[in-house]
């Protein structure tokens, strides 16, 4: 990751020279953006060398961000996302259940134009909410960790875009077990 960041900084420093020598189209992936997201996610716990699914279900939400063009093909910028999950793990012998609630991320991303599409890498802080429920009882807790993703998006005209993204978050130890979140999301948005 350090190599990727150093490369982006070097590209930003060299952007005036790139702008003079590049004959391609200008960067069409810059500016403020807002998107809606629909995903399939699988929160998991691990311990003793085994990985267990809490469940698999749909997630939905949105993301806002700002992409700054640092060369004709490279963008960098911050993002913030908020998604709700419908994952629920139920005990078959009782009314007890664990519900996976919202997840938010704050971070930055680096994008590179790849002949008509933007490929990008994102990394940031991720925070998940879990709720335990039983008859007459409910308790929630949150856990923060590191999250990131890889994705591609393509423009539909100058302002609209669609894309796909794979995400992974690691929340470290939660109640003595390791907690992770894996997600594949489809998205559509607008640049302003």
TrEMBL record:
Domain Outer membrane protein beta-barrel: 8-192
InterPro entries documented for this protein: Autotransporte_beta_dom_sf, Beta-barrel_OMP
UniProt signal peptide: 1-19
Keywords assigned: Signal
The keyword Zinc belongs to this UniProt entry's keyword annotation: no
SUPFAM superfamilies given in the database record: Autotransporter
Pfam families: OMP_b-brl (PF13505)
Top-level taxon in the UniProt lineage: Bacteria
Name of the featured protein: Outer membrane protein beta-barrel domain-containing protein
Organism encoding this protein: Sphingomonas astaxanthinifaciens DSM 22298
């Amino acid at each position: 990751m350090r190599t990727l960041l150093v490369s982006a900084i070097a590209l930003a420093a060299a952007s005036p020279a790139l702008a003079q020598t590049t004959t391609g189209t200008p960067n069409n992936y810059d500016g403020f953006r807002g998107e809606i997201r629909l995903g399939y996610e699988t929160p998991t716990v691990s311990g003793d060398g085994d990985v267990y699914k809490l469940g698999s279900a749909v997630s939905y939400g949105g993301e806002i961000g700002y992409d700054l063009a640092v060369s004709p093909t490279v963008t960098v910028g911050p993002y913030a996302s908020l998604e709700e999950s419908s994952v629920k793990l139920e005990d078959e012998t009782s009314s007890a259940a664990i519900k996976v609630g919202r997840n938010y991320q704050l971070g930055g991303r680096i994008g590179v134009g790849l002949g008509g599409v933007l490929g990008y890498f994102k990394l940031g802080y991720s925070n998940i909410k879990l709720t335990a429920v039983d008859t007459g009882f409910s308790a929630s807790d949150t856990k923060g960790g590191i999250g990131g993703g890889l994705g591609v998006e393509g423009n539909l005209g100058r302002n609209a875009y669609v894309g796909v993204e794979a995400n992974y978050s690691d929340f470290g130890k939660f109640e003595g077990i390791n907690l992770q979140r894996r997600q594949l999301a489809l998205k559509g948005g607008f640049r302003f």
